[in-house]
């Protein structure tokens, strides 16, 4: 009887974990090595009432920004999180500031206070070495100098790059994050990163709104973004628009768009409309009466 009770308990535990695991598809629109010193550009966005994730795949880590929109302290549990490579193998992950920690030890949880964000570079174990000789998450075609040091990725028009793109196109990577809420409850998020080497938005804009890229057909009517700005403050939200559905209101002060500070965007209103019209999700961090929140505009 004890064995049966134990077996049922284990089934219940694993069932609870499976139910808690949210599988979210995130498309990687541009696969390049991030030049040193550039602002990080987040191309993947997700949020719910508990957390928000913005991330971008680099050659040896995942650039991420994790936001806590709740009134409670939140923790990222690294010992319960993982990275899944293209072959389906699971790897431990560590935040960048703890790379020197022996991976046989548990990495301390990262605390994210209420209504704040933490920019965290997530490193999968097995893709870096202690002498800073980084291994790549994918085998990028790179150029090396006379000393064998990587200096750049092969050009987009090179045969090596096209071969690389064909090899990984349609495949995916995974990022499993375990968050602990203010009540000590573990929340699991299983993000699937689909590898897409087509710079869809740039192609769409360069063509004047005409593109063969899926979802960008020019015969489709433009979506009703319904958002007007005066400086960084929303001056109008049209009824039935994407902005209204996202929960934005007149008077909201925009802080960031897709992880970029609004003061670094030349024309924020146009920036939002171009991306929403092209079929991309647009994550907006805003302030309303002193409270920071997130909204996502998407078709």
Automatic annotation (TrEMBL):
UniProt xrefs under SUPFAM superfamilies: PDZ domain-like
Signal peptide residues on this chain, from the entry's feature table: 1-20
Keywords on record: Signal
Tree of life domain: Bacteria
Entry annotated with the keyword Signal: yes
UniProt xrefs under SMART domains: PDZ
InterPro entries given in the database record: PDZ, PDZ_6, PDZ_sf
Domain PDZ stretches: 225-267
Coiled coil: none
Keyword Transmembrane (UniProt): no
Protein name: PDZ domain (Also known as DHR or GLGF)
Species name: Dethiosulfovibrio salsuginis
Taxonomic classification: Bacteria, Thermotogati, Synergistota, Synergistia, Synergistales
């Amino acid at each position: 009887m004890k064995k049966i009770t134990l077996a049922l308990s284990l089934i219940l535990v694993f069932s609870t974990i499976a139910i808690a695991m949210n599988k979210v598809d995130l498309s990687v629109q541009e696969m390049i090595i991030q030049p040193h010193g550039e602002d990080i550009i987040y191309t993947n966005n997700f949020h719910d009432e508990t957390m928000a994730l913005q991330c971008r795949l680099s050659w040896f880590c995942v650039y991420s920004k994790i936001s806590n929109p709740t009134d409670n302290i939140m923790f990222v549990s690294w010992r319960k999180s993982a990275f899944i490579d293209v072959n389906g193998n699971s790897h431990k992950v560590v935040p960048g500031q703890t790379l020197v920690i022996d991976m046989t030890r548990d990495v301390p949880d990262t605390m994210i206070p209420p209504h704040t964000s933490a920019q965290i570079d997530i490193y999968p174990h097995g893709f870096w070495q202690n002498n800073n000789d980084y291994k790549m998450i994918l085998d990028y075609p790179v150029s090396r100098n006379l000393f064998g040091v990587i200096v750049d990725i092969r050009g987009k028009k090179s045969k090596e790059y096209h071969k690389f793109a064909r090899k990984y196109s349609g495949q995916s990577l995974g990022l499993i994050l375990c968050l602990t809420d203010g009540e000590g409850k573990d929340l699991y998020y299983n993000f699937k990163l689909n590898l897409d080497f087509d710079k869809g938005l740039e192609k769409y804009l360069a063509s004047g709104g005409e593109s063969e890229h899926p979802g960008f057909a020019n015969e489709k009517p433009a979506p009703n973004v319904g958002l007007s700005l005066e400086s960084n403050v929303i001056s109008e939200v049209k009824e039935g628009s994407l902005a209204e559905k996202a929960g934005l209101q007149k008077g909201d002060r925009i802080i960031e768009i897709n992880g970029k500070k609004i003061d670094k965007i030349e024309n924020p209103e146009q920036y939002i409309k171009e991306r929403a019209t092209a079929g991309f999700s647009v994550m907006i961090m805003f302030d309303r009466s002193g409270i920071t929140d997130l909204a996502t505009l998407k078709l």
